[in-house]
Amino acid sequence: MIKIYVGDFMKKYLKEIIILLLQLFMFYIFPLFAGPTDAIGMVVLIIFATLLLSVVIGFISNKKIRYLYPIIIAILFLPSVYIYYNETALVHSTWYLVIATFGLVIGTAFRKLLCRK
Question: For residue 102, what are the CA distances in angstroms to 54, 92, 95, 98?
Fold first, then answer.
């Protein structure tokens, strides 16, 4: 019988979990504080935060699970479409996938350049 301890999993992936929690904050808590006229600014800020967080995870994480980050982000955004927006915002999920992939590549490249020296 194989036992998986939640504590061991949390310790192993602590950096990745913290970054995912920050991303979840941007998707689900941040829109609560935005007014109805702040929609475009909020989308831009969330896209910028997604780029920044994906660069960070690409830079600090050495686990292979980081390559799933863009897909996880795109999937995590989907429920917020139905909570805060309407179906026309589903296309933003694709943007978050692209932006997170781009940021992950940048972060990974920075990591490889700095670790080489």
Answer: 8, 15, 10, 6
Own/partner pairs, 84-91, CB within 8 angstroms, 24+ separation: 84/31
pLDDT in tens, 55-103: 999 999 888 888 899 999 999 999 988 888 888 888 889 999 999 999 9
Q: How far apart are CA 91 and CA 93, in angstroms?
A: 5
Angstrom distance (rounded) from CA 50 to CA 23: 7
Which tokens hold the place of 56? 């960070």
* pLDDT tens figures, 8-37: 666 777 888 899 999 999 989 888 887 766
Question: Judging by beta carbons within 10 Å of its beta carbon (0-12, 13-18, 19+), is residue 66 exposed, middle or buried?
Answer: buried
